[in-house]
Design a protein that fits this description.
By secondary structure, this protein is α+β, with helices and mostly antiparallel strands. Among the domains are: 199 residues, 4-Layer Sandwich (Aldehyde Ferredoxin Oxidoreductase,  A, domain 1); 187 residues, Aldehyde Ferredoxin Oxidoreductase Protein, subunit A, domain 2, CATH 1.10.569.10. The protein is built from 24 helices and 17 strands. Strands 2-1-6-3-4-5 form a six-stranded mixed beta sheet, with helices on both faces. The protein has a six-stranded mixed beta sheet with strand order 8-7-12-9-10-11, sandwiched between helices. A hairpin with a 2-residue loop joins strand 16 and strand 17. The radius of gyration is 23 Å and the shape is globular. The model has no long low-confidence stretch (mean pLDDT 97). The chain binds iron/sulfur cluster. The site of iron/sulfur cluster has 13 residues, from loops.
């Protein structure tokens, strides 16, 4: 790896904590500054670690898999929204590389405990909770951890720890213990590593929970500059993100449906009439269920919308529904009762499951019932039909407990297809990860995002084209033209943002764009990363692609499911489809701009350009 002629004067601790759960051995390792120069932190460092330590034949739930957590130079920094940290592991859902990010306090507090990264390997001899305080690690072994819902495990963990300064936590739920391929890790009281099944990896190591705190203050190069930048960012975000504070990401339900891009009844169509859809739009959530805003670590935006159901059959349910959870647990399941969506969101959080894949799997089960391909006899007596909010919530428990159809559904898309290939037409996924709550037939660039994302169909890692392509009205959303450039740019920016430790919602406050003109990383680290940030994003994407190449991915797997080639039957996107011709046109442009060959693999020249020749071994 190219050596940096750079000395960082803040932002990094250069320490990685490695815990071997089998032997209980704890090691503190030094991190080479040259790695930060090339990969910045967070997602970039996670990808580099994965390349070195997770071989292609590692089984996701085998003892040889490892799981790592990585902070960026801004994680925990004295700015705002510096909450993000990354997870890398082999995914039980896709069988390949997984990168995931979460907000919450755990990343910042890991840094306060003295570390930029945490690696867990091996398998604990008994169910345990790992407690990290200022570099001291201890284990709380107890077989009674098993079976606890995430909220109960967290409460029990915190009750057993010394009081005083706050702890940050990560916990898994019963779904993870039961090897549900889409189980999550819940972070603190409601944030999560949702996608890809990292929860099942943690549970396979018999780790139910982690807690961390410390009192290290990592060095910052120019604290006065940080204060000035923070003041400006708060002012800027007060206006630009006012709607996020007022309505959260749920604000997008109404426009996405109105434009015909909302998955409806398991993507059988993309639109519902506005009156029906109004049951799950942000204004309804605000008027009938809103309790208060929720903010992550140091966040002035507080986009989280804490909601509670006060009456009716879901009375007592409480959750913080985001756009994705509402879209996929609501319209995609034919459910337009926000109370049912809140209850389903809460069930996912407490049982420890990714709301997005859980919603897709509910849509699958409902469509199987609709088509008469399964019956109550296959599902422990429970019928699950589109629009049935009560069955929606019940079925989530079946998934987590592996009851009825939950036995097979818990295997995730690829596991289901291996066992029941005739169900494949009803599963919307790319490389095993199911779709977010956007139907690419309503804006085709999102199809390219899903097909090329480093972790399977993902609207974030793959490139969030929603503003630029769907909502701006400035581009032809049904054309393949220019989508390669759009998606590449969005992916590159997202890759570097995921490596900083800053929440993407707040990035505008620090001018972290596709043309970053910002002093913020200079103020933190003493080194001006700004001119190189997009290049670092590209380097990360290329490294991830080489990881995927090693795991058998090339153009043949940059695909969309067959339903995307069927025209939308009604609504504003009626008649549109992402045909193979359209997808190929987008892929050709995208590969060419990336410096990849026609098979979707980085050329030797591209690898040289990004100092990634070491991946050619
Ligand atoms: S903007 Fe929202 S997701 Fe981002 S840090 Fe703030 S509360 Fe968390």
């Amino acid at each position: 790896m190219m050596k940096a002629n750079v000395t960082f004067q803040g932002g990094y601790l250069f320490k990685r904590l490695r815990i071997d759960l089998s032997t209980r051995q704890v090691r503190v390792e030094e991190i080479d500054p040259a790695e930060y120069y090339q990969f910045l932190g967070g997602r970039g460092m996670g990808a580099l670690w994965y390349w070195r330590e997770i071989a292609p034949d590692v089984r996701p739930l085998g003892a040889e898999n490892k799981i790592g957590f990585f902070a960026g130079p801004m994680t925990g920094a004295p700015l705002i929204s510096t909450t993000k940290f990354q997870c890398a592991t082999k995914s039980p859902e896709t069988g390949r590389y997984l990168c995931a990010n979460s907000s919450g306090y755990f990343g910042p507090y890991l840094r306060e405990a003295g570390f930029d990264a945490l690696i867990l390997e091996g398998v604990s001899p008994s169910w345990t909770a790992v407690v990290i305080e200022n570099g001291a690690v201890r284990f709380v072994d107890d077989e009674n951890w098993k079976g606890l819902k995430t909220v109960d495990a967290r409460r029990r963990l915190l009750d057993g720890l010394p009081q005083g300064r706050r702890w940050a936590t990560m916990v898994v739920g019963p779904a993870a213990e039961n090897e549900v391929a889409f189980s999550s890790i819940m972070v603190d009281d409601g944030r999560a590593f949702g996608r890809g099944g990292a929860g099942a990896v943690l549970a396979s190591k018999r780790v139910k929970a982690l807690a961390v705190r410390g009192d290290h203050k990592f060095p910052v190069y120019d604290i006065e500059k940080c204060r000035a930048l923070t003041k400006n960012a708060i002012e800027f975000l007060k206006t630009s993100r006012a709607k996020h504070r007022m309505l959260g990401t749920a604000q997008f339900i109404e426009p996405v449906n109105a434009l015909g891009a909302m998955p409806t009844r398991n993507f059988q169509t993309t639109w519902e009439d506005p009156e029906t859809a109004s049951g799950v739009i942000a204004q309804t959530m605000r008027e009938k269920y809103f309790v208060r805003n929720y903010a992550c670590y140091r966040c002035s935006i507080a986009c989280g919308q804490m909601t509670e159901v006060k009456e009716g059959e879901f009375a007592g349910a409480a959750a913080r529904p985001e756009y994705e959870s509402i879209g996929i647990l609501g319209p995609s399941c034919g459910v337009y009762d926000m109370a049912a969506v809140i209850a389903a969101n809460q069930a996912c959080d407490e049982l420890g499951m990714d709301t997005i894949t859980a919603g897709n799997m509910l849509g699958l089960v409902m469509e199987l019932f609709q088509r008469g391909l399964v019956s109550a006899a296959d599902n422990d007596g429970l019928e699950v039909h589109f629009g049935d909010g009560k069955a929606l919530v019940q079925m989530l428990h079946f998934f987590a407990e592996r009851r009825g159809l939950g036995k097979i559904i818990g295997k995730g898309a690829l596991g289901i297809i291996a066992e029941r290939p005739e169900w494949e037409p009803y599963i919307m996924h790319s490389r095993g990860l199911t779709f977010a709550a956007y139907d690419p037939r309503g804006f085709h660039g999102m199809g390219l995002s899903y097909a090329t994302s480093s972790r399977g169909a993902c609207h974030n890692v793959g490139g969030y084209t929603v503003y630029e392509e769907l909502l701006s009205g400035k581009v032809d959303r049904f054309s393949p033209q220019g989508k390669g450039a759009m998606v590449k740019s969005l992916q590159d920016v997202r890759a570097y943002i995921d490596s900083t430790g800053l929440c993407t919602v707040a990035r505008g406050g620090f001018q972290l764009t596709n043309q970053p003109n910002t002093e913020v990383l200079l103020a933190i680290t003493g080194y001006d990363f700004a001119p190189r940030l997009v290049e670092i994003g590209e380097r990360i994407i290329n490294l991830e692609r080489m990881i995927l190449k090693r795991e058998g991915v090339d153009r043949r797997l940059d695909t969309l499911p067959p339903r995307m080639r069927e025209p939308v039957p009604n609504g504003p996107a009626a008649g549109h489809a992402v045909t193979q011709e359209i997808l190929d046109a987008m892929l050709d442009e995208y590969y060419q701009l990336r410096g990849w060959d026609a098979n979707g693999l980085p050329t030797a020249e591209t690898l040289k350009k990004f100092d990634l020749e070491f991946t050619l071994v």
